[in-house]
Amino acid sequence: LEDGRKLVEYFRAQIRGDPDVASAVAAIRSLLEFLRRDQSETILGLRENMTQAIRRLEETDSSVAVSSGGELFLRFISLTSLEHPDLSQCKNVMIERGELFLKKISLSRGKVGKLCHTFIKDGAKILTHSSSRVVLKVLENAAADNKRFTVYVTESQPDSAGKRMAQKLRKLNIPVMVVLDAAVGYIMEKVDLVIVGAEGVVESGGVINKIGTYQMAVCSKAHNKPFYVVAESFKFVRLYPLNQQDVPDRFKYTADILKTVKDLNQEHPMIDYTPPSLITLLFTDLGVLTPSAVSDELIKLYL
Amino acid sequence: MADSDGRQVDGVNHATGKIYRLKLFFNNEGKELTKEEKQRLRKEKKQHKKNKKDDKGPPEKEKEKEKASVPAPSKPATQSPAHKAAPAPVHASESAAAAEKPAKSKAELRAERRARQDSERTSKHGKKEGGQQSASSKPKATPNELQPVVKRLPEHVQVDDPAALKKLAKKLERQQVRQIHSHVPLRSDYGYKVSLFSHLHQYSRKSPPTLQISIPATVIHPSIVRLGLQYSQGIIAGSNARSVALLHTFKQVIQDYSTPPNEELSRDLVNKLSPYISFLSQCRPLSASMGNAIKYIKKEISNIPSQCKEEEAKGKLQACIDSYINEKIILASEAISKYAIEKISDGDVILVYGCSSLVNHILCKAFEKQRKFRVIVVDSRPRLEGREALRRLVKKGIRCTYVLISALSYILPEVSKVFLGAHALLANGYVMSRVGTSQIALVAKAYNVPVLVCCETYKFCERVQTDSFVSNELDDPDDLIVTRNGKSHLENWQTVKSLGLLNLVYDVTPPDFVDLVITDLGMIPCTSVPVVLRVKNVDQ
């Protein structure tokens, strides 16, 4: 328990220290630190402790990315067999691999940004939803490329994350306009493309993102506008929702609500699921993928 | 595709007189060899013909067609005989043949060795083989990469081509192993066939394939005869049941097999199995799962080391078959149930169609795990398999509703999920299943109800099909005759010239209608089937 609390504190410190970091990266940093400080005697015990640690982190921050990042981290460090009979040697190998993994994923946002900004043409009007650091990076890259474009951001209630995104964009001198969530259908005919981030990419090729994304996807399909999703590869998660109800409750609500509230039906879910049929392309650090290719990549990652 | 057969008519008779070809006919690797050889022979013949008139043939055209042919040599096969006039693809295949390299792949060397052995053997037995010319005129091998195999149509979808039928009859006649009189009987088609499906066989249940078989059927093992009859009469039905019955029968066959002197078990046993397989496919066309099982068995047999004693080899083979059944069918269904139960939540209304052993197993398991759900069983004529599913589910205590498929759009607003079984999953993501499945998936999609297909990986098939016409099965048309109030209106349907009864067995569902495929490897989208096939091939 002591370790659990220290872990959570470390995690929170990471996020406070670097607000730009993806929550999954912060989680993985904390897990790596946990691995370094871990005192268990056997590999099995080590794995047990790691799974416990991941669960503790999920309780703190219930986003899909933390869960997927944690699972991928665990798989990555124990992927190949650890032949050394000595536990400390094994641990060193695992820590090495963990650092390698961390380095790889810290670079992934940059890779995605580089891939996607070429799809933004000069004079484009872009619609985005809520606040996504990856989308911000993409727009940053496009602006640095001397492209002229305007951005429409939805307000994204209940936490008004869209307004924060608008502020950040104004700092980059990008013309931005905040629209109501309800105005997505109204604005869709003006825009050329829609770019959103993702909290998690599921096996079917669909995405889980802030509530309101599904609506935006349906509208863009109706207007035949391309709907692009930008996500790093550590967000790939082994879920397969069939519809909105099929997304597990532990992702739908924030961690505090899950702990305190009795009847979840009275609460508003924070995320929704966008099926792959509405998504045109996914930009990841593994490349530009169609939704059906996501499953192939997942099979490669996990099998 | 018809083009290649057209050429076969006027060209060399590739009637597979040679015994090794019979063995290789169903062996996929062998299929490519024989097709390749036939293709090469064809090219040679054409080359002879062309060299006579072709002195002025534009050489530049050849060169450019050669370049074009290398990436797309399947073009010659897809042109019908009517378009034979187009010399370009002909040039292409010839110039490609002319560009043959002398390098031979291992498989071709093996085949040649076998051919030589067999020609020696057959000449010893004094049989007249027209195939000797094919042995002697074996052209140099073209590397597989340069010349991808031109796919020929399997014979069971060429029923309206008289040449193919003649070839099949000859092949069945020749499937004798040192016996003169007994042979695999050729079953004749029954009744008028609808023109769109005239390329498929249509047999009547009243004329079993064993009518012409002589007693004792020394070529065909009696348990195989029994199995064939069980298939043709519909006593054993359902993809899993047929495969398991087939594997058990093969175990029996292997048990009773004894290696003749001067023969190797690994080669001779495969030869022995070929007439059995022909007989079974005459009784009822093989399913994709049976095809995969047969491929596996043949591979296992040919991998038996030659120094292995007979008893040991037989024991090994039986163990292999047992483990195949256990892993691919029984354990797979356990794994699939585990994944599927995650998708069944309390309060669900689940729609199932027909009788799929896998789906029934899943529902029974979910019920045991105390999930609260009810089931709607959809059924259709003439098989009315849904009744069997209904019986099994009700026996378990599951609340069921029973409707016919015509009431589908009435019942769908109540449904929360659709569970479907599959006969085979094709390489392009299409699902081949009992006729009516595609309809259910379509209407479910229109109502936004998720459609889940449950299928074991051993039913994954390398074939690609986009419609239900090109390869299907026609059941006995007399099944459609129904007697109500003592009157059967269709009784004399044969007398009405313009009337055809069509009793289709399978149909093909596109992947857009299927939301999820549950396999023993996990839950995958329908478009990821080729990835699984690739991973499986790498494993093997």
TrEMBL record, chain A:
One Pfam family recorded for the sequence: IF-2B
Domain of life of the source: Eukaryota
Key words of the record: Cytoplasm, Initiation factor, Protein biosynthesis
InterPro entries, sorted: eIF2B_alpha/beta/delta (IPR051501), elF-2B_alpha_N (IPR042528), IF-2B-related (IPR000649), IF_2B-like_C (IPR042529), NagB/RpiA_transferase-like (IPR037171)
Subcellular location field: Cytoplasm, Cytosol
Biological role: Acts as a component of the translation initiation factor 2B (eIF2B) complex, which catalyzes the exchange of GDP for GTP on eukaryotic initiation factor 2 (eIF2) gamma subunit. Its guanine nucleotide exchange factor activity is repressed when bound to eIF2 complex phosphorylated on the alpha subunit, thereby limiting the amount of methionyl-initiator methionine tRNA available to the ribosome and consequently global translation is repressed.
Family: Belongs to the eIF-2B alpha/beta/delta subunits family.
Name the record gives this protein: Translation initiation factor eIF2B subunit alpha
Species this chain originates from: Cyprinus carpio (Common carp)
Lineage, uppermost ranks: Eukaryota, Metazoa, Chordata, Craniata, Vertebrata
From TrEMBL, chain B:
Compositionally biased residues, Basic residues: 40-51
Xref: SUPFAM superfamilies: NagB/RpiA/CoA transferase-like (SSF100950)
A biological-process GO annotation: animal organ development
Stretches with biased composition (Low complexity): 81-100
Record-level Gene Ontology MF annotations: guanyl-nucleotide exchange factor activity; translation initiation factor activity
Keyword Magnesium: no
Subcellular location: Cytoplasm, Cytosol
InterPro entries attached to this UniProt entry: IF-2B-related (IPR000649), IF_2B-like_C (IPR042529), NagB/RpiA_transferase-like (IPR037171)
Principal cellular location given in the protein's record: cytoplasm
Feature: compositional bias, Basic and acidic residues: 29-39, 52-68, 101-123
Keywords: Cytoplasm, Initiation factor, Protein biosynthesis
The organism's place on the tree of life at top rank: Eukaryota
Quaternary structure, from the entry: Component of the translation initiation factor 2B (eIF2B) complex which is a heterodecamer of two sets of five different subunits: alpha, beta, gamma, delta and epsilon. Subunits alpha, beta and delta comprise a regulatory subcomplex and subunits epsilon and gamma comprise a catalytic subcomplex. Within the complex, the hexameric regulatory complex resides at the center, with the two heterodimeric catalytic subcomplexes bound on opposite sides.
PANTHER family, alphabetized: TRANSLATION INITIATION FACTOR EIF-2B (PTHR10233), TRANSLATION INITIATION FACTOR EIF-2B SUBUNIT DELTA (PTHR10233:SF14)
Function: Acts as a component of the translation initiation factor 2B (eIF2B) complex, which catalyzes the exchange of GDP for GTP on eukaryotic initiation factor 2 (eIF2) gamma subunit. Its guanine nucleotide exchange factor activity is repressed when bound to eIF2 complex phosphorylated on the alpha subunit, thereby limiting the amount of methionyl-initiator methionine tRNA available to the ribosome and consequently global translation is repressed.
Record-given protein name: Translation initiation factor eIF2B subunit delta
Organism: Cyprinus carpio
